[in-house]
Amino acid sequence: ALDIARQRARRRGLEDKITWVRASLLDLPDSGLGPFDYINCSGVLHHLDSPADGLAALTSVLKDDGALGLMLYGRYGRTGVYQMQQLMRLINHGEHRSRAMVENTKEVLASLPNTNWLKRTPTLIGEKDQLDDAEIFDIFLHAKDRPYSVLEVYDLLDRENLHLVEFLYEERAMYDYQFAFRGEGLQRQVARLPRRYQQAAAELFWGTLDRHKFWASRHTDTTADARDPQNVPVFSKLAESIGMPESIVTTVNSSSLVWRPSIDARHGMTISFNLELNDVNRQLVRLIDGRHTMGEIVRTITSGADSPTADENVWNLCCETLESLRKFDFVVLHHESVPGIDKL
């Protein structure tokens, strides 16, 4: 793993800017390292004897105002994997040779009936005949693999007094009850629940969330505020990779009244939403260039307005639009004092 990380850093010209350490995550509290502004830990905690101890070790070297980026396996979305793991434990009972265990697994995968849960969710692991031996071992034969539901993720964070800031990227919509439950009555019912239970209901509704990727921090006010006049909106790399800036700019420059993007989510699912266009958000979109601050954008839009309430109305409309775009990380915000950030 360390060699692969070095190769990736080398390709980006970063190898000499990184301090490389080979040690156990659990040794962090006494390592003399840190404290850190940001810690990324993807696909590690759920393979430990005690994920809670692993998270405690990470938190011990996190700055008070720092953040964590975490990924944990999802309990319900990996149902087929865990049934397969249990099956292979039965078949491989008494077998200790890794090669033989992998070959047994390959044979079972090739003969699964259509009634098997893994076979019924083919997008869960991709093409089974394209998995290499290491991937087969990691997915189906790993001795330690502890999955989490949304509520279990919150419980884990609660133990370290951490706050779940947001789930990541396009899958964030999969945790939003408004995308899951479209009827007004159901939406009103779910809206009464605390946020974590709303997200838990959405997880159970979709049934496909096989991993939870999210940011966590000690504080509840860590999300950039669109109302801060010194924050700069910018189209993200994610948005650019799927052509969203061109799509929305083309739409606002046309006579269309609504922008209707679609986003490909995991397991062949598509998320769609409507953004109603008006004079304010048409101008907002045109002014998002990674240089103009929110204060400058609002002043540009309100210049020449006669109404004393125009400024507040523009702020409200801009924030509503940015909230819709930020749900998918199409637009991100950074403070103008942070140098060298053009695309996040």
TrEMBL record:
This protein's name: Methyltransferase type 12 domain-containing protein
Coiled coil: none
Span of domain Methyltransferase type: 3-68
InterPro entries registered for this protein in UniProt: Methyltransf_12 (IPR013217), SAM-dependent_MTases_sf (IPR029063)
CDD domains to which the protein is assigned, alphabetical: AdoMet_MTases (cd02440)
Gene3D superfamilies registered for this protein in UniProt: Vaccinia Virus protein VP39
